[in-house]
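With this grant's support, we have settled on a layout for protein records. A representative record follows, to show the layout.
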Amino acid sequence: MLRIGWEKAQGKFVAQNRVSKSTQSRGDGPSYILLVWDYMVEVPGADGQPTRLVIRVKNPNLDLPELGGTVPVLVNRRRTKAAFDLDDPSISPDARRKLGEQRQKANAAAKQAKFDAKRTER
């Protein structure tokens, strides 16, 4: 989802609640389970006072800390909506995987450059 003008912030993980669990059928294909969770986070408000916001996530693939921990979030300017920052590797396995792939590519490029430098020296 495109979130233009949203700011990165650190929120306090306050509560979580499973809203629903249902089995969905794809007609001729296999069925799958749909989980919907609500997570409550406390973020610093625009006036400096903490604001509690609810983030609804379908089929979460997140590594969240224990209750009371700090989580990276994106918030809108008025501090009325929030979403987890899925580009942050501290909570997102997908972001960690992408970061690892980038590091592997950088290491491979560095090794190749070192090899090429040794090949041309005499």
